[in-house]
Structure prediction request, 456 residues.
Amino acid sequence: MSGLDDELEPIFTRFGEATTARYTKLPEGEMLPDTAYRMVRDETMLDGNARLNLATFVGTWMDDHAQRLYADSFDKNLIDKDEYPATAAIEEYCWRILADLWNAPNPDDVIGTSTIGSSEACMLGGLALKRRWQHARRAAGLPAEKPNLIMSSAVQVCWEKFCNYFDVEMRVIPTTPEHPVFDGEGLAETVDEHTIGVVALMGVTYTGAYEPVAKIAGILDGIQATTGLDVPIHVDGASGAMIAPFLQPDLEWDFRLPRVASINTSGHKYGLVYPGVGWVVWRSTASLPEDLVFRVSYLGGEMPTFALNFSRPGAQVLLQYYRFLRLGRRGYTAIQRESQQVARYLADGVAALAPYELVTDGSDIPVFAWRLKPGHTDKWTLSHLSERLRVRGWLVPAYPLSGELADQTVMRIVCRNGLSRDLAEDLLRDIRTETALLESLPAPIPHPGLGPAFHH
Prediction:
């Protein structure tokens, strides 16, 4: 059969559907578009429900107007600034909005770019630190090899990738019971003339806590006073850089601190956009070495571009601008506040259960973590609770902390726009129910439960 006759075939008896859908070689012939669509759609039926995935920071909901805008701009290639000059201009509008949000000292002397998520943004920030350090060393007639970058053991894996890919020594200051977040302790012993910068986290992925950027900057000020070493800070604000300006506006962590050279964030996290878009902004054009910037022409002029990727979608950039226009400062504040209130509600509910104690309570970013009280039980672990919640459809990760705290397992819930109070009540009910079931066990569970879940 062919043409219209093919469409008369009953569903699931057509070519392709009556055999395996798992092609690892290109099929010899064509199939109906409805058939191909259904096969791909069916293959993804076992994927989780994104709204119930409380492991990820990535946005899982946008409104109908955003979806229409997304559909209107699927074909836009952001790098082609000659064909899409308006999209290129909107990209600049967005990073200038972020520069203002993060208190850049001079709006006429600032530069930024969009990226594919904040991992690329971190790598660009790290590259700028490295290149700036190399230029300063060579100008002083000093060797520019063996750079190092200082960070907490709780950094996201993208920083390990950066140091590996770009030949930078990763100097890690471990988290400890006395210093559960990096607070500058140990910097004086770790900084040397080869240090290109320090990474500070506005929202530790393990727990949701802020690292005290101002305190870290103050310690680096003291180091400069005694050694002459001027070490800049890159703030990894993948989550917190889109929370703190709205929920903790008086907290000094951004370009109000002269030592902060650059900041990144994820537009697709608390920037409230579908994946994947990130942003990085430098406090001044001098903070981004000119030899890292490529210039492309558009509309008879030129536009700087700095990225690891080349062709990439422009749709998410337009969605980010839509969010900025649609919500404004008041709208972002309302959404982030509601997410935090849901986090605090859930944290209070978990803390009220006898087996648990909070590690963080959601008062920084809308994320909280908890652990089993030491010695509470030998019959079950948080991995078993994670497994039981997964049976009910919830993805709540259990995983070890970093550094000297790696012997502690925690669970963490990320509260995003779309996790309503109603859903939170359902989740808390299920946590109570499954905890009671585990507590009632007469003997230890004979298997270890799920392994550490994806939590970045």
Q: What stands out?
A: The first helix runs from residue 4 to 7. Residues 339-439 form a domain with the Aspartate Aminotransferase, domain 1 fold (CATH 3.90.1150.160). The two ends are 50 Å apart (CA to CA). The CA atoms of residues 48 and 158 lie 25 Å apart.
